Structure formats: C-alpha cells, structure tokens
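Lab notes, practical 5.
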Amino acid sequence: MSAALGILLRHGDHEAAHYALVVATGAAAIGRQVTIFATNAGCRLFQTARPLEADAREKLLESRGVAGIGTLLAAAQELGIRRIACEAGLRAEAIAPESLAPGVEVAGIVTFLAEIGTGQMLAL
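Output from the prediction step:
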C-alpha cells in the first residue's frame, strides 16, 4: 500500500484550492489514502455555498476542458478523500462550521497529523 498523502490547504484562492483537488483526486485515483486539511482562508473550499466556483477562473478552466472545482469536489467525495476543516482556521476566518458541506469534518492539526502518520504532506 502506498503512503498516505496529506494536503494542507492554507490559501483561499481558486488556484490553490483547484490544485489541491487535482493532486488529491489524482493520488486517490491510484489508490492512495488522501486527506485534505483546510485551514484559515482555505476553509472556503469546503463551504456549502461553494464561493470558489463563482471565481472567473472556474469558467475559464472548464472552457479549456479542465475539470473545475465542482467536478473535482464530486470526484473527491466519490474517491473517499477525507476532508477536514481546521477548527482554529474556521474561527480565524469567522466561518461558521454550519456553513460547511456535508461530510466535512471539523478537527485540529493533531487529527490531521495523526491521519497522515509517516506519509507525505503537501502544503498549498
């Protein structure tokens, strides 16, 4: 079995969130255990309202045949990628836990690190 992959998403912009999902779904597609841990502005990725899909870059990517955030979020769920929103990060950005999509956990960095263990971590 391949090493677990943890993706730490710190930025709330479309580009960082999109690539976090590209890496996560790619790794999960080849059988890796993947966890995305979003903190601070990165927590926007997991909101039910999906504010990042309103970014102009979303339509640009899709017009060029690149899967957008909406498509990748659906794939992440289908592939069983664990999604965690940082409790402190939510507070720092004044994002209510109730605004998160179903299936997104709220936990701290210790939970994320324990999940990844000796696996790899990528920070975006």
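Observations recorded by the TA: The mean pLDDT is 97. The domain at 5-123 is CATH 3.40.1260.10 (Hypothetical Protein Ychn; Chain: A,).
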